[in-house]
Amino acid sequence: MPHRMLRQLHDGDSVEDVYLAASKALRTNRQGGRYLQVELRDRSGSLIGRLWNATEEHFQAFREGECVFVRGRAQLFQGNMQLILTEIHAANADQYDPRDFLPQSEQEVSVLWNRLRELLQVSNPHLRALLNLFLQDETLMQGFVQAPAGVRVHHAYLGGLLEHVVTMLEAAERLFGGDRPLYPGVDRDLVLAGIFLHDLGKVRELTYASHFGYSDEGQLVGHLVLGVELLDEKARQAETLLGEPIPQELLLRLKHIIVSHHGDPASGSPCLPMTPEAMAVHLLDHLDSRLHMILRELREDRFPERAWTEYHPHLERRLFKGQPEASPSATPHRDGRT
Amino acid sequence: MPHRMLRQLHDGDSVEDVYLAASKALRTNRQGGRYLQVELRDRSGSLIGRLWNATEEHFQAFREGECVFVRGRAQLFQGNMQLILTEIHAANADQYDPRDFLPQSEQEVSVLWNRLRELLQVSNPHLRALLNLFLQDETLMQGFVQAPAGVRVHHAYLGGLLEHVVTMLEAAERLFGGDRPLYPGVDRDLVLAGIFLHDLGKVRELTYASHFGYSDEGQLVGHLVLGVELLDEKARQAETLLGEPIPQELLLRLKHIIVSHHGDPASGSPCLPMTPEAMAVHLLDHLDSRLHMILRELREDRFPERAWTEYHPHLERRLFKGQPEASPSATPHRDGRT
Amino acid sequence: MPHRMLRQLHDGDSVEDVYLAASKALRTNRQGGRYLQVELRDRSGSLIGRLWNATEEHFQAFREGECVFVRGRAQLFQGNMQLILTEIHAANADQYDPRDFLPQSEQEVSVLWNRLRELLQVSNPHLRALLNLFLQDETLMQGFVQAPAGVRVHHAYLGGLLEHVVTMLEAAERLFGGDRPLYPGVDRDLVLAGIFLHDLGKVRELTYASHFGYSDEGQLVGHLVLGVELLDEKARQAETLLGEPIPQELLLRLKHIIVSHHGDPASGSPCLPMTPEAMAVHLLDHLDSRLHMILRELREDRFPERAWTEYHPHLERRLFKGQPEASPSATPHRDGRT
Amino acid sequence: MPHRMLRQLHDGDSVEDVYLAASKALRTNRQGGRYLQVELRDRSGSLIGRLWNATEEHFQAFREGECVFVRGRAQLFQGNMQLILTEIHAANADQYDPRDFLPQSEQEVSVLWNRLRELLQVSNPHLRALLNLFLQDETLMQGFVQAPAGVRVHHAYLGGLLEHVVTMLEAAERLFGGDRPLYPGVDRDLVLAGIFLHDLGKVRELTYASHFGYSDEGQLVGHLVLGVELLDEKARQAETLLGEPIPQELLLRLKHIIVSHHGDPASGSPCLPMTPEAMAVHLLDHLDSRLHMILRELREDRFPERAWTEYHPHLERRLFKGQPEASPSATPHRDGRT
Amino acid sequence: MPHRMLRQLHDGDSVEDVYLAASKALRTNRQGGRYLQVELRDRSGSLIGRLWNATEEHFQAFREGECVFVRGRAQLFQGNMQLILTEIHAANADQYDPRDFLPQSEQEVSVLWNRLRELLQVSNPHLRALLNLFLQDETLMQGFVQAPAGVRVHHAYLGGLLEHVVTMLEAAERLFGGDRPLYPGVDRDLVLAGIFLHDLGKVRELTYASHFGYSDEGQLVGHLVLGVELLDEKARQAETLLGEPIPQELLLRLKHIIVSHHGDPASGSPCLPMTPEAMAVHLLDHLDSRLHMILRELREDRFPERAWTEYHPHLERRLFKGQPEASPSATPHRDGRT
Amino acid sequence: MPHRMLRQLHDGDSVEDVYLAASKALRTNRQGGRYLQVELRDRSGSLIGRLWNATEEHFQAFREGECVFVRGRAQLFQGNMQLILTEIHAANADQYDPRDFLPQSEQEVSVLWNRLRELLQVSNPHLRALLNLFLQDETLMQGFVQAPAGVRVHHAYLGGLLEHVVTMLEAAERLFGGDRPLYPGVDRDLVLAGIFLHDLGKVRELTYASHFGYSDEGQLVGHLVLGVELLDEKARQAETLLGEPIPQELLLRLKHIIVSHHGDPASGSPCLPMTPEAMAVHLLDHLDSRLHMILRELREDRFPERAWTEYHPHLERRLFKGQPEASPSATPHRDGRT
User: Fold this and answer.
1) pTM recorded for the entire structure
2) Which residue of A has its CA nearest to F272?
């Protein structure tokens, strides 16, 4: 039975489904009654569930952070939907698909993947060999197409890493590729390969099977070093395959792009970008992540009647949407100036 | 008689021409002899000139920073060209063209100007009216096509501002324009107009008639405020012309792009970019200025036999050019790893 | 009927009045009872109001942030005053005066205004003409005498901007004016005019009709640029009126004071103060805002029995009031040192 | 009757004891019932106490922050222990020992004190005289063996300052003392005396009789200046005693160690360490405080089943404990790499 | 014979006098000739002296930094005055007055001292007793009226500390004293006493007998701690004299002013100002030092024909003097705007 | 013939040897004479060499940075030794040993190497296997015992890296090893192995065959990433050798020590230290490098008659040596205080 998204529930709907129990509490009142209050989540949003006349057994039947099977009924309360439960307990792993609980890219993974393969055409034979080895590594690519680009900041959803890389490739092709490249001194092949590699370590840095987080090695060494290790591994395979090593300097230029792509030490890169291509990848990464955050914030804004979005903690600002057309702004200074 | 560039002088050439005297000194030796030493410059470079048996009158015949007429002969000395002078004094204004002493864009101004007019096509009628008023302001545009984009840092040559703006327009058109814009939420017309306006205040901030520097108002209020003042002036003209004011919010969005384009207060912008278009202009400005500096540094590098450029004080780094092919690098670790 | 301030209510008082509903919640208990809990505010303070046996209709009868008409009775509970409500719904605009809900200067606006006019006597005829044009602009001055000097930090009440400017003028007159100026190289007239202008853009930057906040242009361009635009407008009027322009350099010096008065880029000024007068205005602004915050914090302190104030988030410190006389401090080290 | 620690209570235990009332609230429900909820603390931890059918008198019978006598019974509720109270009121000062409510060093004070005296053997006679005067000042030493090393950050418990100093002395002896000092240019005697003195001002800076906080002089001048004042006092006594002053330069070197031990102005030291001994004390202080925080955080970790500790606000990081052995980590990338 | 200042020498003057030899060099030429080149200084300025046909003995006859007796003749050379020497050797201490080589306040020390005593009238008896003890300490006051306020930054001349303190006292009296104090919550007596004390430690921190520098204790503990030590000493004397101690809190408030007057840790104050008086002293100190630097830079400017001063390394800016009236500025944008 | 060190030359000595020509210039005078001036260096110091009557051929006979054969005579001039040359030209590679031109550790490499092997005894078998593989890699170890620890900052001489590592191992053994470890929660084996590995990437990051500098990969990826790559290589070898992989978590902990040992991102570490051992290695690295710089600066001080060293640009301070005993300091304040 397919999962019913929380956002699609209507007042009065019966529910028999699995959700993530983000938190739980056993509450009491003076007349002997206790009730269990749970925050339920899936990737569409979250609701409060309540089970009246709850016992300690109900409370102990599942842990926070676990997926739970619930039975109950949706009810509108104080303008919000809630779930009145009659049953709740830990779910079995075969009762649900973990991805129902994680946000996903709005774009089709297969479309993005095909676009990536189209864009990632390079003429340098050593780069081509290297890229092919990556693209043929199924386990790695399975991670690559699923991984988010981050836990919270930008592209924080399944497929986010792929989407981020494809947009950057597209921008790079437009600026540095084609017949009339805008900056002829920048090596287009190296930029494209560098874009593909720059965040690849995130496949191992992040965890995204059941929730978004960091792996141990993600926290202890970080995706820059992990990316270099992945590249070293493929370079060794390429040497075996081609019968000759990838040229040292080419490999060094790729590693440099990975290691320097955050732009400076304070942002987490041990080296400053010191080649045109490293600078190009850093700048495109910055451009795509900033624009993506801003456009997403505007698209997902929940208060169309306001001229400004909520404060965005990572961008550290609110964004201007403009005064709604219907309501001609009447802030005092405007009156005053007529 | 056209100016003969310093870089084109050969050993033994006779010289009768005007150069900029960057510095002067009257030097002496124990045998009663004194000689005058002058640093001569034009936009191709600089040389040392020496006049033997000089007198106090020679020394007083011109000031530092002035253009001087010189007569003499080119001579190779210690691997460098120098000028042995027989005559030197201040030149008259009609003896030279000030632009011979200022570096210039490698691109034709007329080509850049035409490309600007092609790219600056917008469909929003108010923006179009505003842009036309700017493009028809001949005095302003005369400054715009001559001004450098900066005194030292990037595009520091005549025509540099125009070149910087045209490249940014080109990049914007490729990323935000056409049938398949990469970030559909970004208003292409507003970005293009914003790019045109963002540095326009530099026409008044900088001086570039005889040398590059800052005007009084350039230092005391800066090109951001000057740009807003220029826009206010044109908006008033547009209102008269169109019979209706430019919509407040449109004007505000343009001013915001100007005021926020340095990205944050520490970089000189009183406001953070808070619209997608302001962020886009800021990011493209950053991208073009950084890539321009890097590519120019590599192109003008004077030591092809070295793998690294000199230290670049503004980029605060050296750039990697790669080991010259003829000299297979033999750094110790490479030997050690074979 | 005049508004009855929340701080003046006593246990048992009947209430029929309008207050600002800062927040609302419909709470429930297991016996079927629900109650509505509201935070009510006016400029004297805030109280919790409760309406027992509330319905969804009560909850929907007003929005958060709106002014509401309430009927009920004051009641002391757990050491705090609360309001037990019998009626609550949105108020009509003609039922209240918005200023009852905004804090106000403790000083009379008319007194401050007269003092401003006394202090703002300058002998430079161009400055006098400019200042007169500002003082005669009734719409602008209406804003000027009402505006706060900030939303939160200092002088954050109606009339605060005027009070801040008058105190700075007074300090400037004492230090730079009179027969025995302390720093003879500082132009007293320019400082006084600069003080008047430095924050004038706040009249348009801030909103203060019903609550304190920022206007769109306040956020998008900021009060520095707005101040320059106001000055440009008056300078154009002055030129028409006088038949000659305000001298360029005088105007530039005034703009420079406005643009540089925050002291440095990181604090929001694109330029550093580069004239004695710009530095003087910046320093007096800093001096008045800091002392004002400190003295207000001490005056409004609510715990006379403690030696220290609460932590002040903007000053980022607590302030020392001194040990209350009655309680001879007995911290261990003092005992130990006798 | 000795105090019964909160952490030692079991379900059903009767309680008649004194605890610190950290906070109190009188809560209500619709059926006329009110209950008092109190957070009780001692140095072993904290519990929630509830007194059903409470009155305003119960609520007024004690203040927050005061020690209270309570009678009641321990009860397990929702996995946590709580106290159901039948009586609660302010306790008399003779009913309890304040130290039951402050955390304490796990090491015996007398053991630490003896170790300090063993380690603090110096051969320089002036240093020995000075140190003896300190060690014989009973009032001061009473504070020294009780004081914490800080209010929150490290060694924040009774005896913490002594423990911190003894560990630093031990490290100094191993690195700079003995027959084979690791850095022969560092004066071991001066380092040991400097370690003893560096934080001695904390005895007066902090308060630790009933709770941890700062004294007035602690906040207004700080422990660096207080330490210099203590040293000045003893130097005067030594001069009287010895009939000759402590050599100026020796005294200056000691004061310098005190004043510079935070390492730089931004960390609170007006001077940078400019002698080997001042640098050594600064570095050992840093080393001991960091390692102490880290090891304590790991030792007190409450979730052995997790690989990482909670976020530590002062260290600004989480710490890696390692994957628990029983649960072979199955993060996706590891599966993927087999 | 009084010292003849270097700035007063004319072409052809004979010279027999003592100057400071800032640097020396023995230079050579191919014809066997050597000459000695010396930079000579006094408080009016510096000149280059040259002794032709010099020997190693001439070179060894004095050290750099020493005062030397010279005989010779002034000569104009290349627009600058130089001294052609016939004799040069180290001077005896009785041949010169060290103060001829140190810059001095333009104001009379006796006038400043009298003004200080007039301004330093306080009504608080304990403060009065303390201040009198300071004013009666002749050795200390002898240093106080001579000391500069700094080595390089502001008031860097003999009498500079006194001048700085008197100007601050004057400003404080105008703002906080009299019948109509501008900030009634600030204790005028405490501010005046705090101003007198805030930099008093500089009397011991700096050396100014023969040149400006730092004493050992100046570098190792700094003038904040030295100031507290001076205050402790006087407080002990006052206790003996008055038969009762200065009240602890009053003393603490004074120490706090001294310790916090740099404003924050990064500027060298271990504590933030936490009383109105500490904040007032800090702000007046900042105001006077900044205005003093700016006005002095403008007054001593050597290029009246330029609109801007030279770059000021401590202020980190150039200052705007204004376009000279005779030369109507003709920067391009002005032409363009007519 | 062994190289004669520049520092050992005496007035009048004949010289026939090879030195490094750090810079060269052909200087002229009016009488037709030219002379060549060269700065000659070896690891003992540097001298100026002069060849009278030089020709363009002399000037072209070698390049700056090259080793040159010189013939001539030492001569004392103006208190400094110089070399009067009769011959100078580029040397052949077989005429000199490059190490004569690089500074060296004062300690015997073989002694340090043996001490390293003694100290590096660990009981964990996997660590032991790994360390053995490193120690048996002759090419790598040859670099390790030669490499400096840095180009300029600390231990900047041949053998400096080894010396730095051995001192850290010694300190670690004393603090964390033996029967009575000072911090029992720190894993001694892991710390020792981490110390050995933390800077090992410097063997490849730096060049030290003929002069100290950075390799290409040193600049482009840095010694942290290079260290991880070296470890990965040995871990693969260990797996082959042992028939089982090094445990993932152990390897991860080692990589974490390498990657985090600079302490934070701004200092060049992408990760903060998050294990006790990573923190311990970071702190010991900091302690040894700081103390080493300070003690070396004091040991190499050239002015025993001064109380302070010269300004140290990396430490950003001068160091206090103390007043020389013979000259009882007579700074003014001391007189004043008797």
Assistant:
1) 0.87
2) A220
